[in-house]
Amino acid sequence: MTSPSRSGSGIGDLPLLGATHRALREQVADVLRERITRGDLPPGTHLVERVLADSLGVSRVPVRDALNLLKGEGFLTQEPRRGVVVTRLSRKDIEELYDVRSALEVLAVRLATERASDEEIEELRGLVLTSESNLAEQDPDAVLTTNTAFHDALTAMAHNDLLASLIHPLEGRLHWLLNQNEDPTPFHVEHEALYDAIAARDADAAAVVALRHVLTSRSVCLRLLHPDGPR
Asked: Minimal CA–CA distance to 30: which of 58, 50, 3?
């Protein structure tokens, strides 16, 4: 459980920003995105611009800009009479997100199999080994971080800037959904199979594993977030 913030907002202690050269709105967005993804700010949480600005030690302008940025990414929703809240993902939202992910990720994996350098494939192997160590150490946060790095590496290995620009806006929400899963072992096993297919330069086999991996993730998310079925 997170500790109360300085302002009593209940959003947890937040770092004072402004120490880097990145735009403040981006720094604020990064902090809030991470807290949403990690579950510190669950769906339905009401975010107050003034409270966030006070907690982060910045003016309300970068906070407002960051909130608008996160609305565009799907993390936040503007609700009538309530203001900005962390998005509640409906079953339809999840299904649509995974429909798009299946198309883009299978393409990314095919391209990665064909275009990745030997060095990039070796780096992917390193991430699989790191994930294995994370599991052995029973460190779920580290597993999530490594799994995220694995998917980011696949996108980079495709060497297609347009594809990366399409995948990038979805990544945060996908990591958010993956964070709901309490047992990362099935994902690790599929990552191993995916690495094996890519290392063998077998694009067809890699595409089959990638699609199975997306369907596994989709099934887990729907079961956890909507256990009673369609609404």
From this structure: 58
pLDDT value at residue 31: 92
* Residues 168-211 pLDDT 10s: 878 877 777 777 666 788 889 999 999 999 999 999 999 999 99
Sheet of 76-79: strands edge to edge?
Answer: 46-47, 83-86, 76-79
Residue 76 parent element (H or E) = strand 76-79
CA-CA distance, 31 to 15, in Å (whole number)?
8
Stated pTM of the model: 0.75
User: How far apart, in Å, are the Cα atoms of 193 and each of 97, 162, 189, 207, 212?
Assistant: 23, 26, 6, 11, 11
**What H or E segment, with its residue span, contains residue 223?**
helix 203-225
Q: Tens digits of per-residue pLDDT, 11-41?
A: 545 555 555 556 889 999 999 988 888 778 8
Are residues 127 and 150 in contact, defined by beta-carbon separation less than 8 angstroms?
yes
Which residues pair with residue 53 across a beta bridge?
Answer: none
The amino acid sitting at 128 is: V
Helix (H, G, I), strand (E, B) or coil at 24: helix
- Please say whether the beta carbons of 195 and 142 come within 8 A: no
